Amino acid sequence: MDRADFVARFGGVFEHSAWIAERAFDGNILPVALSAKWLHRALRKEFRAATDDERLAVLRAHPDLAGRLAIASDLTEDSRQEQAGAGLDRLTEIEFARFTDLNTRYHARFGFPFIIAVKGLTKQEILHAFENRIHHTRPEEIAAACHEVEKIARLRLEAMDFSGT
Asked: Which of 7, 24, 62, 129, CA to CA, is 20 to 30 A from 30?
């Protein structure tokens, strides 16, 4: 697999951050058979080695949960499927108002959207986490968001088919 193919296939694992896949390709010798575990390790290494500003840009690249991009159907396919799987595309008016309020307050407090790996969670569990994490300090929340970004990347990789690589 050449660099362009690698980046095309794995550049979206970290939301709108193909530079992570580019650095992983450039800094690693690809194994004969790629695996989700190997790729996650290589991509996570590059994410963690990035500058604070670069990691913050990755956080800012994520969409709000049940936010305006979801309403406009302007999410990446991965984000759309993840949010739909958690029922965030089927909120009641009261739930939507709660998410909107939390999204606004969270973004004002931290400067990036609330990030959580929604796969396997219910909308009630997501709201509970949202309501708890909005009280974190900024350093605590950056650490929590980075952890969730890495988890999202792992889940996305695990959902990929590696039989042809």
From this structure: 62
